[in-house]
Amino acid sequence: MVHGSRKETPRERRWKTPPPPFVSGANVTTADRNALRDAGWPTCWSGAAELLDWCRPFDAVLDTDGTTRWFPGGRLNASYNCIDRHVEGGRGDEAAIIWEGKLGETRAYTYRQLEDEVNAFAAALRDLGVGEDDVVTLYMPMVPELPIAMLACARIGAPHSVVFAGFSADALATRLTGANSEYLVTCDGYYRRGTALHLKSMADNACLSVEQDVEQIVVNRLDDGRSTGDHHSYADLVSDHDGAEIDPVERDSDDLLFLIYTSGTTGEPTLVGHTTGGYLAHVAWTSYAVFDLGPDDTHWCSADVGWITGHSYAVYGPLALGAATVLYEGTPDHPEKNRLWEVIERNEVDVFYTAPTSIRAFMKWGSEYPEQHDLSSLRLLGTVGEPIDETAWRWYREHVGGGECPIVDTWWQTETGGVVLSTLPGADRMRPGAVGRELPGIDAAVVNEVGEEVAPGESGRLVLTRPWPGMARSLCDGSGWGARRTSTVRNQWQYDTGDNAVRDVDGYLHLLGRADDVLNVSGRRLSTAEIESAIVGVEGVAEAAVVGGTDTMKGSKVHAFVSPESNVAGDEALRTRVRSAVESAIGSIAAPDSVTFTPSLPKTRSGKVVRRYLKAIANGETLGDTSALRNPEVVGELESLLDE
Ligand code: PRX
Which of residues 303, 330, 357 is at a domain's end? Predict the structure, then answer.
């Protein structure tokens, strides 16, 4: 928005420039961007590694001899980089974690306090028998003990596997088994919209259904004395180990820092591993360059730490740079719809990072809520998780960013570890609705089915064509850069992101959504296959197909088409059983918004379910020719059913 009476020219509407004071003080300027370009790939990534302290310097930026290894020969510890070095540098009394609790309580940890508690908990974990490379599962809500436990694991070289607290006992069990994890740190419970949820009983159910014995540690949040079963108390462990000092374990750059599950295209959640050196360098550098963070900043990434966004930009990135990070336990509209703005004002937040789905909710609630607060501390805004439309972009800038703040739309995935596409706020113009371009050192292309780059303006699959430091370790295995090879063109390495995109004539990329069977619901990735497998497990269900529907608020809606067994009625009771099966297999985030019963699903003559038609039906779109179907009549029946 251009202030004053003059109307925006079309060019001003299309392009936005960051304010000059921001540009002149930015961490990465146009000159820096040019220098990185001149350094070339992969050398340009050495600056990212230099943001960290290494116990042993790396021999090269990238080793592609057999496998892809970033910063080979280098040894480091992530907890040392996120804590000790800041204390040693005289910043022990500065804020590290600022926690805003659900019931209005606040707790702040300085870097020194963080160091003390991380050491104590690391010592406790060791005493319980956790050794290097043992996986510790963390099933916790947004309490400070979650990042503390992550950093304690990192200190002793034990990879953590954080499971989002909204996941069900079954989902936790799958993840405990998949990671072969024998240690679980959880919480007695937490509050959601003022109601207490008992996490410990879910954890107990999960532990009962896995083969290995699982040692549990419980943080008391509710403190209502209901936690039963065999477990250690987090608070007792920390006080018993008060004053302990644990030397940070030197890890190879390539050693695992953590595991995290994401939804892939198959029914099974996909396990992704991130490395200590490559990942940490990537998130530190992107926090520095994209979020323009430094030690004097207070950063608030509103994502739950249970997701990759929280790992990278609520914990590791900001703490690696010595900034303060805000953790917020609550929901944005409880007790009032001004809650977030109040938190920003009280903590003088400099950089705020959230998802378009939240921005759309803020818009719906109205600008009077942000207007009640002084948000002038904000100097940069970010978004992630799904494309941001121009209207939401402008609203965010105007009502949260005071019409001035630059906005970075950041595209990335669990597999990329950190941001790979974005504008650099000190060096690039912004284009509302477009994500921007590749960060320096990232190569992306929009390609057709055979992997050839398509012309600007044409849509295709977004692929990354060269390795990057934050890449998941599974992408580095095999020969050469042996990740997924989709290209048949000159046998070129391509990582297929699963997203469709289009590049405009100015080189900016616009994301068009997923090309595969992964739904993006409120910025969270869900696999249609995983939801379907929960539904077909319900007694009386013969078949099910799940498709995404456009939803102006959530990004995607979950539509389930369910075909009951011949003698079973598709009634309310079955519908409820279908919904609760999904809730208990995955969590309430995946529960279908609609369940439509049908005698059969539309199928090709070879028996394949044609989800394309179901998607069109669910979204009220034209179907086109259905003559290739074995049962075209079912499509008409479904349409009329939904019309009702
Ligand atoms: O479809 C893209 C979408 O979120 C997917 C990655 O989800 P996840 O691994 O859960 O990581 C979420 C946070 C990084 C992508 O494949 N996505 C993420 N950021 C954007 C986006 N779509 C459009 N624009 C974005 N900025």
Answer: 330
